[in-house]
Fold:
Amino acid sequence: MPPDSDFSRRLLACADRLVAHLDHFERARVLVVGDLTLDEFVNCYVERISREAPVPIIRHEHTRQVPGGGANAIYNLAKLGARVTAAGLVGTDAQGAALRSLFENAHIDTAGLVAEGDRPTVTKSRISAHSRQSVTQQIVRIDRKSDDPPQAEILERLAAFVRSRAADADAVVCSDYGDGTFTAETIAAALTGTPCIVDAQNGLDRYRGATWFTPNLPEAERAVGYRVETAADLLRAGQDLLALTAAELILITRGDEGMSLFGRDGTVDHIPAFNRAEVYDVTGAGDTVVAGLTLCLAAGGSPWEAAVLGNLAASLVVRQVGTATTSVAEMRDALDRLLRLHQAQIS
Structure:
């Protein structure tokens, strides 16, 4: 499908501003409150079939650990140059230490990581294997987590930290994966920051009054209670989400259909997907959208410009397998290619 000419003209008209916003990403101070996860990717080689059971015996080759869940939003912001403070819960285990180390190596402020000895750090271990004549495939995923709620005293400490830092941040991000971090007190503390951007899988109404919500299409459908299958459904959903959340802006991410931005002032903008041909893995792409748009807002960008740069950032990470990040240099190159494409389309 060729790019929309109106979108192309609007994109080209603000080209200099978009470049300037990228240059200012490193100035932003962002507080991220999140359900923190450690993602492990364990790669192995299949040696033979076991005599004990019809299962492969696999030999470990290497393990890669990266921030996942809300921790991925934090990591994306840091990799884009922002000064990031992380707030969330970890265990007093090796996985918690690994996540803390990953943050510190990326120059992320870890003062807001609250450790609780009775709960493990949420960890998702993906076991993959290959043989000499086959590609690597995931065999199983092992999750470590507790279904028990965090201790009240731990949550009080977290909320107090968030409240103490929110007012001084250029933006506050809430990355809610449903793992127990976001109590009413923690949410109230986060909402004292402006702008407050919410990426939550469920319970959007709990964040009523936040500045910006970024649900994907299934999350939007759960929130409004009906399927979004037509253009009319989409418009209705955008308005219903604005009413539900009392937000200024709702951005519904729609995969290869792009994004739709709804403003409280009645504006509606549809932004096309920038990369359809090279999508390998959408894991964590929503976190990258949030990172890009948050830093654009902090740099003084308009909501439309922020959505464009969030979309651009996500178009880069979906080309990589597993949880991934991008950089300002990569975004500059991608923006240059995008501008040349749209210039050619209207020339």
About this structure: Residues 5-37+69-120+147-346 form a domain with the UDP-N-acetylmuramoyl-L-alanine:D-glutamate ligase fold (CATH 3.40.1190.20). The mean pLDDT is 92.
